[in-house]
Amino acid sequence: MVHSGSASGGHYYAYIKSFTENQWYCFNDAQVTRVTYDEIRKTYGGGPSRGGYYISSYASSTNAYMLMYRRVDKEQNAVPMTPDQFPEHLKVLLENMQEAEERERQQKELDRSMCKIKLFCLHPRKHTMQEMRLKVHKDASLAEATQTAHQIANLGDVPLECCRLVMYDDCAESLECSLEEVAHQTMGQILGGVKSSYPFDLLLEIRKPHETFQPYKIGGTTVKVHVVNLEANEIARAVVVRGLKTQTVEEFKAQVAQQLGLPSSNMRMVLENYHSGLELLTAPGRMLKSEGFGKSNTVFIEFIDEEDSKLPFRESQFFEILDRHINTIVIYVHLPQEEEVLLEKQRMSSSAENDQRCGSVEDEGGTATARSTQQTQTANTALSDGYDSDLCDSSSSGCRGGDHSEDSSLTDSERTLVGDDMSPRNNSPDIADADDSGSVEERQPKLVPSVEMTDQIKRSMLEPSGSMSAAAPTAAASTADGVAEEASGYSCGNVAQSQAEAAPIKEPRRYFRAWPYTDKEDGSRKLRVYVDKRITFGALKKELEQYVGIDSSHFKVFRVYSNNQEFECTKLTDNLVSYAEDTKFVIKLGRALKPGEHRMDIYLLSPNAPEPSKFLLDWIFTQGTTVLQIKQEILHKIRERCGRDIPLNRCRLRKKVSGNPGAVYLDSDRLDSDASMFLSHKVFLEVLSEPEKVVSSNSLVLFVRRWRPSTFTFDPLEEVILNERTLGALKDELSKLSGLDPSDIEVAKCPGQFPCPVSSLTVHTEMEWHGTAPSLTSWPLYISEDGLVVLYRDRNEALKELTEEEKQEISSRENVRAAKGAKAVPSPRKERALKIYMGSPPSDSGALSSDTKPSLNSVPIDLD
């Protein structure tokens, strides 16, 4: 028996010799394998681990083994049973095991002979690109592989002779080449053998019964051709045409006309160039390669309107339609529930009534601070229904009101109505239901008999059938005056700049079309919107008004990122040019920001409370507003809603930096000018027990806490204000608080996040205490920022000697909060360990006498 490993862990296995065969076998858990004597020798005295079955985790420099002897006596030695001697039930079990092993061997052999490759197919009815996995034997023919692909693509109504397999590049959406020339070869020869991955994919191409397949040469170009109808303002679904880069523009036009059954004499062809936009192909003799054609391209053709063709391309209706098309993206908008909208309207009406009854209040400087519509409405809309329980008699600890983030994710089947034919994303149930209710060809007009005008995204004449689950889409274009008013009235930025640019600039009309629907998972209201990405957020909000059900000045737009993080879109003059397809937005109720306004979160700071930092309310302030004005408005709203009157000179606002209290804002400071708030816009509201003493920005405001080693306790947090940043000034203030002589005071900077809890068991010995230091703001103290927590003690106070019970009680008390928040993590099953005592073994009774007691060096060691 061998133990492979070390004294702290390892694995047991055994070598047993068969008398009948004179062979050694390794018994390792449930596995029995034949081994040679050389492999047994490798276990002697340590050394490298044996190869083959054993893994490196069993390797060790020292192996422990135990030899067990058997007497060789043919009369008494038992021999292993042969299969003929098995009981009947074991014979059946053995037969089943052998059959299962044979099936497994055959399946593995078959898997080693199967070619597995991605298969794509553009479904003729759903017009969606389907992605599948084609598994075909390496000795199968191309015809057999085509038949298998036809079956897994579920093309029962499509004749098999109308399908063929071609090489395809999914990344570039390009048809690489056809396989007619290698049709006599096996799939293993065509694909280059059985591999884990292939540098190309396969596409099951489908033709109409009256058409014929065209051969595709390597190095060609795959072109999506859209037919544009200027009269109907429509763009047809793409038809894929395979050309050669060596063709001229004239030859390619003739090929397109022949394949689509169109005249080529008056055909205008526009290439969508991703570098320079739309390019009209006017040189019939130039080759496609010279015009910028690559592996995959998109072109638009028009051949009916002769009058429009006489205009410059950039001024034609043809360009206008294409420009709108290439700049249109799909976005998803999560709308608030109708009940929330009704409540917001009620708050708006009650706020307006209160505004009429509000008067003016004189501030301390003698300036009339009007509690007019802007200020009162700001507070009413920014403040939520619930207040912090410590400040008001309410159980709510947050005041975010309607800003509840909901999951705006959509299922894959709800992401797109109808998009690019070659894209696998087009599987919306809404349009699928509409298609099932009637024939697509019956409901949609055709430009010519051979081209379907089925682009349901950009169609303005498409009316949904009664069976559609989504509401009827509404098309709208932003009016120039309304957009200009919104953009100029609600754009964010510098106040002076916005005043200088007060003259409204008319914005051209932008495409907007929305499909309302209900999320099947949570029942929330959502929009699927097709919009020109050059539209501004101001114009977009105007378009969304009819779907939200409230004026655009009373809701906010948040962008939702892939990690579900939300970011408010406050600059309404920005557009959606940098936004990708399928971007998600969330609409939240509340007054939107105006020029020069910023939103900030206000937290209640209670240093000695169990929860020192609690969210209090949202607030909107105008850039340049004094801290005094903001405090007056906040206290007025707290008094109005909570009935608590907080004196103005007994509260302060201070910066919030990563959960820690920072610098104190003076009443004369102006936010985002004298007192920069960066991008966080988070502050603490701190209620003081006495009038404010901080009158200078040069003062250093610290929290101090006394450590009493004689009782193993901490005093509550207190505040000290230093006008001089020296250790002597700090010790003088501590002397006033504690009555200790400054020479007897030692201080230590408390690490961690506010309120910086430390263990009383280690604070006295492991903290760096200093009675003297060359500087307060540099080494070794580095106490230079407002809001830091400083511990101090009397160096003459003796340390209490704790018993083990007292230590355990203190440790349990300090760890109770961490224990409540701890999560149980399941651990994998382990083999039960053995304990080996390196000393005298214990007696059978378990009671150890003085003679049999293990030595002092005996320690239990866990072995696997």
TrEMBL record:
The UniProt entry, under InterPro entries, shows:
Papain-like_cys_pep_sf, Peptidase_C19, Peptidase_C19_UCH, Ubiquitin-like_dom, USP, USP47_C
GO biological process: any one?
protein deubiquitination
Q: State a GO cellular component annotated for this protein.
A: cytosol
Q: Which PROSITE patterns match?
A: UBIQUITIN_2 (PS50053), USP_3 (PS50235)
One molecular function GO term is:
cysteine-type deubiquitinase activity
Q: Where is the composition biased (Polar residues)?
A: 842-858
Read off the Pfam families from this record.
UCH (PF00443), USP47_C (PF19718)
- Tell me the ranges covered by the USP domain, including all copies: 1-72
Biased-composition ranges, Low complexity, are 367-386
Recite the UniProt keywords alphabetically.
Hydrolase, Protease, Thiol protease, Ubl conjugation pathway
- The EC number(s) attached to this protein equal 3.4.19.12
Task: Give the family, as the similarity comment puts it.
Answer: Belongs to the peptidase C19 family.
Q: What is this protein called?
A: ubiquitinyl hydrolase 1
Species whose genome carries this gene = Rhipicephalus zambeziensis
